[in-house]
Amino acid sequence: MRKFFPHWFLLLILLFSSSVFAQTNGNVAGKMPFAVGETLTYEGKFSKIIRGIAVADMTFKVMNAPNNKDYLVKAEARSKGTLLKLFRFSFLQQIDSTIDKDEFRVLRTVKRDVQKERVRDSEALFDYKEKRVTYVETDPKDTMRPPRNIASTLEGETHDMISGIYNLRLLPLAVGKKFELAVSDSGLVYRVPLRVTAREQQKTILGKVWCFRVEPEIFGENRLIEQKGSMIIWITDDEKRIPVRSQLNTEIGKVEVKLKKVD
Domains of the chain: which residue ranges? Predict the structure, then answer.
Protein backbone atom coordinates (compact mmCIF):
# COMPACT_ATOMS: atom_id res chain seq x y z
CA MET A 1 0.00 0.00 0.00
CA ARG A 2 2.69 2.49 1.00
CA LYS A 3 4.72 1.82 -2.11
CA PHE A 4 1.71 2.53 -4.29
CA PHE A 5 0.25 5.73 -2.83
CA PRO A 6 3.33 7.98 -3.25
CA HIS A 7 3.17 7.30 -6.98
CA TRP A 8 -0.55 7.08 -7.83
CA PHE A 9 -0.70 10.83 -8.44
CA LEU A 10 2.02 10.68 -11.07
CA LEU A 11 0.69 7.50 -12.59
CA LEU A 12 -2.76 8.96 -13.00
CA ILE A 13 -1.15 11.96 -14.61
CA LEU A 14 0.23 9.51 -17.10
CA LEU A 15 -3.30 9.21 -18.37
CA PHE A 16 -2.66 12.57 -19.95
CA SER A 17 1.07 12.46 -20.38
CA SER A 18 4.03 11.82 -22.59
CA SER A 19 5.69 12.85 -25.77
CA VAL A 20 3.77 12.49 -29.00
CA PHE A 21 6.11 13.21 -31.84
CA ALA A 22 5.05 14.64 -35.24
CA GLN A 23 1.35 14.49 -34.42
CA THR A 24 1.56 17.52 -32.10
CA ASN A 25 3.92 19.75 -34.02
CA GLY A 26 1.26 21.34 -36.22
CA ASN A 27 -0.84 22.30 -33.21
CA VAL A 28 1.82 24.18 -31.26
CA ALA A 29 1.77 27.17 -33.59
CA GLY A 30 -2.04 27.37 -33.53
CA LYS A 31 -4.50 28.29 -30.82
CA MET A 32 -3.66 26.68 -27.50
CA PRO A 33 -6.46 25.03 -25.47
CA PHE A 34 -5.09 26.60 -22.30
CA ALA A 35 -3.55 29.92 -21.23
CA VAL A 36 -1.36 31.37 -18.51
CA GLY A 37 -3.43 31.54 -15.34
CA GLU A 38 -5.45 28.37 -15.90
CA THR A 39 -5.73 26.32 -12.71
CA LEU A 40 -7.26 22.84 -12.57
CA THR A 41 -8.13 21.24 -9.22
CA TYR A 42 -8.86 17.51 -8.81
CA GLU A 43 -9.82 15.14 -5.99
CA GLY A 44 -8.65 11.56 -5.84
CA LYS A 45 -10.61 8.77 -4.14
CA PHE A 46 -9.46 5.26 -3.32
CA SER A 47 -11.79 2.28 -2.97
CA LYS A 48 -11.44 -1.39 -2.09
CA ILE A 49 -13.30 -2.53 1.01
CA ILE A 50 -14.52 0.95 1.91
CA ARG A 51 -16.06 2.83 -0.98
CA GLY A 52 -14.85 6.17 -2.25
CA ILE A 53 -12.38 7.37 0.39
CA ALA A 54 -11.00 10.81 -0.48
CA VAL A 55 -7.22 10.46 -0.27
CA ALA A 56 -5.71 13.47 -2.04
CA ASP A 57 -6.17 16.82 -3.77
CA MET A 58 -4.27 17.80 -6.92
CA THR A 59 -3.75 21.15 -8.61
CA PHE A 60 -2.15 22.22 -11.90
CA LYS A 61 -1.39 25.89 -12.59
CA VAL A 62 0.00 27.37 -15.83
CA MET A 63 2.38 30.30 -15.37
CA ASN A 64 5.05 32.20 -17.24
CA ALA A 65 8.55 30.89 -16.61
CA PRO A 66 11.03 33.31 -14.96
CA ASN A 67 12.55 34.05 -18.40
CA ASN A 68 9.10 35.24 -19.60
CA LYS A 69 9.61 33.09 -22.68
CA ASP A 70 8.52 29.61 -21.67
CA TYR A 71 5.69 28.02 -19.68
CA LEU A 72 6.06 26.97 -16.05
CA VAL A 73 3.44 24.49 -14.85
CA LYS A 74 3.24 23.98 -11.10
CA ALA A 75 1.62 20.74 -9.94
CA GLU A 76 0.93 19.55 -6.43
CA ALA A 77 -0.62 16.44 -4.90
CA ARG A 78 -1.35 16.44 -1.17
CA SER A 79 -2.78 13.61 0.89
CA LYS A 80 -5.97 14.15 2.86
CA GLY A 81 -6.77 13.30 6.47
CA THR A 82 -8.68 10.13 5.61
CA LEU A 83 -5.55 8.55 4.16
CA LEU A 84 -3.57 9.45 7.26
CA LYS A 85 -6.22 8.13 9.65
CA LEU A 86 -6.86 4.82 7.91
CA PHE A 87 -3.37 3.93 6.67
CA ARG A 88 -1.17 6.18 8.84
CA PHE A 89 0.42 7.47 5.69
CA SER A 90 0.80 10.96 4.22
CA PHE A 91 2.49 12.37 1.15
CA LEU A 92 3.18 15.60 -0.67
CA GLN A 93 4.46 15.87 -4.24
CA GLN A 94 5.35 19.21 -5.79
CA ILE A 95 6.55 19.43 -9.39
CA ASP A 96 7.66 22.42 -11.44
CA SER A 97 7.78 21.69 -15.16
CA THR A 98 9.39 24.20 -17.52
CA ILE A 99 8.10 23.84 -21.10
CA ASP A 100 9.50 25.34 -24.30
CA LYS A 101 6.64 27.44 -25.73
CA ASP A 102 7.91 27.27 -29.32
CA GLU A 103 8.69 23.55 -29.56
CA PHE A 104 6.36 22.51 -26.74
CA ARG A 105 8.77 20.08 -25.09
CA VAL A 106 9.95 19.82 -21.50
CA LEU A 107 13.18 21.61 -20.59
CA ARG A 108 13.47 21.07 -16.84
CA THR A 109 11.63 19.21 -14.08
CA VAL A 110 12.08 20.03 -10.39
CA LYS A 111 10.37 17.75 -7.89
CA ARG A 112 9.96 17.47 -4.11
CA ASP A 113 8.63 14.10 -2.91
CA VAL A 114 7.63 13.78 0.75
CA GLN A 115 6.45 10.44 2.16
CA LYS A 116 5.90 10.76 5.91
CA GLU A 117 9.41 11.54 7.21
CA ARG A 118 11.16 10.66 3.95
CA VAL A 119 12.03 13.61 1.67
CA ARG A 120 13.64 13.56 -1.77
CA ASP A 121 14.50 16.52 -4.01
CA SER A 122 15.27 15.98 -7.69
CA GLU A 123 15.99 17.78 -10.93
CA ALA A 124 15.85 16.51 -14.51
CA LEU A 125 17.46 18.51 -17.34
CA PHE A 126 16.60 17.81 -20.98
CA ASP A 127 19.38 18.52 -23.49
CA TYR A 128 18.02 18.06 -27.00
CA LYS A 129 21.30 18.92 -28.70
CA GLU A 130 23.07 16.14 -26.83
CA LYS A 131 19.93 13.97 -26.95
CA ARG A 132 20.13 13.20 -23.26
CA VAL A 133 18.13 13.65 -20.07
CA THR A 134 20.09 13.80 -16.81
CA TYR A 135 18.42 13.21 -13.46
CA VAL A 136 19.84 13.96 -10.01
CA GLU A 137 18.08 13.05 -6.75
CA THR A 138 19.22 14.15 -3.29
CA ASP A 139 18.17 13.67 0.33
CA PRO A 140 17.97 17.11 2.00
CA LYS A 141 17.87 15.42 5.41
CA ASP A 142 21.12 13.56 4.80
CA THR A 143 23.66 15.82 3.08
CA MET A 144 26.32 13.11 3.37
CA ARG A 145 24.32 10.72 1.25
CA PRO A 146 25.63 10.58 -2.37
CA PRO A 147 23.20 11.89 -5.02
CA ARG A 148 21.41 9.40 -7.22
CA ASN A 149 22.31 10.04 -10.86
CA ILE A 150 20.55 8.63 -13.94
CA ALA A 151 20.98 9.55 -17.62
CA SER A 152 19.01 8.31 -20.63
CA THR A 153 18.96 8.94 -24.37
CA LEU A 154 16.25 11.18 -25.83
CA GLU A 155 14.70 10.36 -29.18
CA GLY A 156 12.81 13.39 -30.45
CA GLU A 157 10.48 15.53 -28.34
CA THR A 158 10.09 14.39 -24.76
CA HIS A 159 7.82 15.33 -21.88
CA ASP A 160 7.75 14.78 -18.18
CA MET A 161 4.58 13.73 -16.40
CA ILE A 162 3.28 17.29 -16.17
CA SER A 163 4.09 18.78 -19.56
CA GLY A 164 2.64 15.64 -21.13
CA ILE A 165 -0.81 16.49 -19.78
CA TYR A 166 -0.85 19.69 -21.76
CA ASN A 167 0.74 18.01 -24.78
CA LEU A 168 -2.08 15.50 -24.94
CA ARG A 169 -4.56 18.38 -25.05
CA LEU A 170 -2.99 19.39 -28.37
CA LEU A 171 -3.64 16.05 -30.07
CA PRO A 172 -6.25 15.55 -32.83
CA LEU A 173 -8.21 13.00 -30.78
CA ALA A 174 -10.75 10.81 -32.58
CA VAL A 175 -12.25 7.40 -31.86
CA GLY A 176 -10.03 4.64 -33.22
CA LYS A 177 -6.84 6.70 -33.31
CA LYS A 178 -3.65 5.27 -31.84
CA PHE A 179 -0.51 7.04 -30.65
CA GLU A 180 2.82 5.97 -29.24
CA LEU A 181 4.02 8.10 -26.38
CA ALA A 182 7.46 8.57 -24.81
CA VAL A 183 7.44 9.40 -21.10
CA SER A 184 10.44 10.49 -19.04
CA ASP A 185 10.22 9.88 -15.29
CA SER A 186 13.14 9.91 -12.84
CA GLY A 187 15.69 9.91 -15.64
CA LEU A 188 14.24 6.91 -17.47
CA VAL A 189 12.27 6.99 -20.73
CA TYR A 190 9.26 4.76 -21.37
CA ARG A 191 7.18 4.16 -24.49
CA VAL A 192 3.44 3.91 -23.97
CA PRO A 193 0.87 2.82 -26.58
CA LEU A 194 -2.34 4.86 -26.31
CA ARG A 195 -5.76 4.28 -27.88
CA VAL A 196 -8.84 6.51 -28.20
CA THR A 197 -11.52 3.88 -27.61
CA ALA A 198 -14.81 5.78 -27.39
CA ARG A 199 -16.70 9.07 -27.26
CA GLU A 200 -18.89 9.16 -24.15
CA GLN A 201 -20.90 11.60 -22.09
CA GLN A 202 -19.66 12.35 -18.58
CA LYS A 203 -21.34 14.20 -15.72
CA THR A 204 -18.84 16.84 -14.54
CA ILE A 205 -18.64 20.20 -12.81
CA LEU A 206 -18.83 21.66 -16.31
CA GLY A 207 -22.16 19.93 -16.84
CA LYS A 208 -22.88 16.84 -18.89
CA VAL A 209 -20.26 16.90 -21.63
CA TRP A 210 -19.03 14.70 -24.45
CA CYS A 211 -15.57 13.27 -23.84
CA PHE A 212 -13.02 11.10 -25.56
CA ARG A 213 -12.16 7.93 -23.66
CA VAL A 214 -8.39 7.41 -23.81
CA GLU A 215 -6.65 4.23 -22.64
CA PRO A 216 -2.86 4.19 -22.21
CA GLU A 217 -1.06 0.87 -21.71
CA ILE A 218 1.19 1.47 -18.71
CA PHE A 219 0.77 -1.88 -16.94
CA GLY A 220 2.85 -4.97 -17.67
CA GLU A 221 6.41 -6.13 -18.13
CA ASN A 222 8.94 -3.36 -18.83
CA ARG A 223 6.28 -0.69 -18.42
CA LEU A 224 5.81 1.99 -15.79
CA ILE A 225 3.87 -0.38 -13.53
CA GLU A 226 5.00 -4.00 -13.64
CA GLN A 227 1.73 -5.51 -12.45
CA LYS A 228 -1.77 -6.17 -13.72
CA GLY A 229 -4.07 -3.21 -14.10
CA SER A 230 -5.79 -0.76 -16.43
CA MET A 231 -6.12 2.97 -16.86
CA ILE A 232 -8.68 5.30 -18.46
CA ILE A 233 -8.96 9.05 -18.95
CA TRP A 234 -11.84 11.18 -20.19
CA ILE A 235 -10.99 14.43 -22.02
CA THR A 236 -13.62 16.92 -23.17
CA ASP A 237 -14.41 16.94 -26.89
CA ASP A 238 -14.22 20.72 -27.26
CA GLU A 239 -11.62 23.40 -27.86
CA LYS A 240 -10.44 23.30 -24.22
CA ARG A 241 -9.67 19.55 -24.14
CA ILE A 242 -9.87 19.44 -20.33
CA PRO A 243 -9.17 16.14 -18.53
CA VAL A 244 -12.29 15.79 -16.37
CA ARG A 245 -12.01 12.26 -15.00
CA SER A 246 -9.56 9.39 -14.77
CA GLN A 247 -9.62 5.89 -13.37
CA LEU A 248 -6.84 3.52 -12.31
CA ASN A 249 -7.60 -0.13 -11.54
CA THR A 250 -4.85 -2.04 -9.73
CA GLU A 251 -4.35 -5.20 -7.72
CA ILE A 252 -4.82 -3.26 -4.46
CA GLY A 253 -7.92 -1.33 -5.46
CA LYS A 254 -9.27 1.49 -7.61
CA VAL A 255 -8.43 5.19 -7.71
CA GLU A 256 -10.88 7.71 -9.21
CA VAL A 257 -9.82 11.27 -9.96
CA LYS A 258 -12.38 13.93 -10.89
CA LEU A 259 -12.15 17.58 -11.79
CA LYS A 260 -13.45 19.73 -8.92
CA LYS A 261 -12.66 23.29 -10.00
CA VAL A 262 -11.49 25.30 -13.01
CA ASP A 263 -10.06 28.82 -12.67
Answer: 5-262
